[in-house]
Amino acid sequence: NNNHGQIYSGRGLEFDGIADYLSIADDASIRPTDSITVVCWIYYTGSGYGTIFGQNYGWTNGVWLAMLSGQLRCELDGAVSHNDFNSPINVNPNTWYRIVMTYNTVDGGVLYMNGEVVDTIAANGSITQPTSSPYQIGGSGTYFFDGAMADFQLWDTTWTAADVTYDYLNPESLALNNSGTAL
User: Fold this and answer.
1) Greatest CA separation found in the chain?
2) Strand pairing partners for 64?
3) Which among 132, 145, 179 is positioned nearest to 40, based on CA atoms?
4) Mean pLDDT, to the nearest integer, of 125-145?
5) Bridge-based pairing state of the strands 71-76 and 63-68
6) Residues 104, 124: contact at Cβ < 8 Å?
7) What is the mean pLDDT of residues 33-49?
8) What is the dihedral angle through the alpha carbons of 98, 99, 104, 106, rounded to the nearest 10 degrees?
9) Cβ–Cβ contacts within 10 Å for residue 102, how many?
10) Cα distance between residue 68 and residue 2, in whole Å
11) Three-class secondary structure of residue 13 per DSSP
12) Whole-angstrom Cα distance, residue 75 to residue 61?
């Protein structure tokens, strides 16, 4: 939909875990319901709960990536009936990780860390998205991410495993630049 935003800083954005976040204006064209990919590098320095990406509407609504006591958590509301990916993924503090979360109503969802599958969920319908809550990067409500993020991407299509591998092995190049991609 040509909704492209890009910050050229050459560095990760730092989030203080107290009040820092980026807000994406609410727009129906960026609320995927049948297919989504969320991608980012994270460097977690905190120990509590912090939203990487989500809506300021509550844990059981929309799309969420978050840290909870050193574990990566993901939820797709509606698609998995208010359940998150089954396995909490341990994340070591002060280490960069490439996180990719995909979902579509045919194949289900896959959570990747550093190009490797760490969890999957079965397809179970469209993602329920609140219509009056903007997406936020780095925090929502009172749950703020403590650390840094870089190269955040939100797609309204599902990356393949080959796209994820290409992205991880070519960090300065979009998966879109891969000649073998269907993106």
Assistant:
1) 42
2) 75
3) 145
4) 79
5) antiparallel
6) no
7) 88
8) 80
9) 24
10) 33
11) strand
12) 8
- List of residues 6+ apart from 85 with CB closer than 8 A: 73, 74, 75, 109, 111, 119, 120, 121
4 contact partners, CB below 8 Å, separation of at least 6: none
Helices (H), 95-160: none
Q: Are 17 and 73 in contact (CB under 8 A)?
A: no
Supply the mean pLDDT for the chain: 82
Residue type for position 146? D
Q: How confident is the model at residue 83 (pLDDT cuts 50, 70, 90)?
A: low
Residue burial 119-152, b: 16+ Cβ < 10 Å; e: rest: bebeeeebbbbeeebbbbbbbbeebbbbbbbbeb
Enclosing H/E stretch for 140? strand 139-140
- The Cβ-side half-sphere exposure at 146, using a 13 Å CA radius, reads 14
Give the whole-angstrom CA distance, residue 129 versus residue 44: 27
Instruction: Using a pLDDT cut of 70, give the percent of the chain over it.
Output: 80
Q: What is the pTM of this model?
A: 0.87
Check whether 3 has a pLDDT greater than 90: no
Q: Please tell me the least confidently modeled range out of 33-37, 115-119, 153-157, 158-162.
A: 33-37
